[in-house]
Amino acid sequence: MIYCVEDDGSIRELIVYALKSNGFDAMGFADGKEFFSRLKEQTPSLVLLDIMLPGEDGISILRHLRSNPDTRKVPVIMLTAKSSEFDKVTGLDSGADDYVTKPFGVMELISRVRAVLRRSEQSYDSGELVMDQLHLNPQKHIVTVKGKEVVLTFKEFELLKCLMENKGIVFTRDKLLETVWGYDFEGETRTVDVHVRTLRQKLGECGNLIETVRGVGYRIGGNQ
Amino acid sequence: MIYCVEDDGSIRELIVYALKSNGFDAMGFADGKEFFSRLKEQTPSLVLLDIMLPGEDGISILRHLRSNPDTRKVPVIMLTAKSSEFDKVTGLDSGADDYVTKPFGVMELISRVRAVLRRSEQSYDSGELVMDQLHLNPQKHIVTVKGKEVVLTFKEFELLKCLMENKGIVFTRDKLLETVWGYDFEGETRTVDVHVRTLRQKLGECGNLIETVRGVGYRIGGNQ
DNA sequence: CATTTTACATGTAAAATCTATGTAAAATCC
DNA sequence: GGATTTTACATAGATTTTACATGTAAAATG
User: Whole-model pTM?
Assistant: First the structure.
């Protein structure tokens, strides 16, 4: 989900439309107030933020986002009209991940959105594991799908964590039993399969992120 | 080591100076020719690439880099003078990791360099087997031909891995049955041949990398 | 020497067989 | 009582077998 905060209605509509037609979920807001009230409902995977806004300006909103633990890591792309504004965000010291100068082409915007998302999906410094719409926070012991919490049991959580910590790498059932269960097992067991099933079920739309590699084991994020 | 390809001497000097004074090793080149001849000596950890260059342009250089297995994974940041979105989009889609529009602030550039390097350090190689356009990653259990994933079954994968791990060495059918299948077989079986066939088929253009050595067995990379 | 024959080796499509996985439901463990 | 594991079975998909076509080196023949 991408949020766009922009006071000019026609630009806002244009951006939201462009994002949607490029396969993103998107939502527009005219000012910081609207935006923050929605933010409580669902944390987006990216925010497009105009600098000049009625009420609280973009820079201030950005600081707000960065100071809240829940939104600290949400990538932000700033939209700037003047090059004087541009100066404020250059150096990226304000903590924006990228910026686009108006007037901008739609395709340029989409490209930058993609680039920033690609980056943010890979970087996991504060421990939060991210994979598309699927987030796992080891410290908080919380998993969310599209921003909504999913309640997992201990084994389910550990299993998912193990896979997400090793994005792209296939784990055999034996290896999983060893790392997640601590077994040093011999013989048959369908335990892993059953847990994968419940996981997939609980993760809903994100369930298919767990790939089966036939004859080998399971993997998450094969294309990375 | 960071390489910077930029025809404008003063900009090039500036960039190299800025990088060096920020603790990076850096080297500048005025065109693709200089750059490529140096590339044979040492593969850099990052390349800064101007789009407009005399001779081969930046986009073409980028494609070159990406098509060579040795440099495929080197991160590239594009430098562009025109902000026309054409340049930017083609830059991103041809596989650049980021791009910076001139005129840019030195600190912005350094920030981006740091960000890209941070990213790339995480995803460093893991026993990936390479043979021309054919790549096999044992950990991820993924095979790509010209960068596109090819889905192999377990036996196909193991067979290919066995051959690629022993580049240039001929394997008899018996030996293959022993290593890949674990059989200690006597008697006739066409199993290997059938699997070689499906492999060759699935690998498409790279199928002919698997050579038949008549009367002996199969081999990959006979000329190495 | 050129060619034909012979004897196998290999390629290939399709059928037959086998097995890994998904899944529901029961049993067992904290 | 929920979490976890075991059991049991159906089935998609992988693997192997079969049967025949084609390729090829070397011997036999003209």
Answer: 0.57
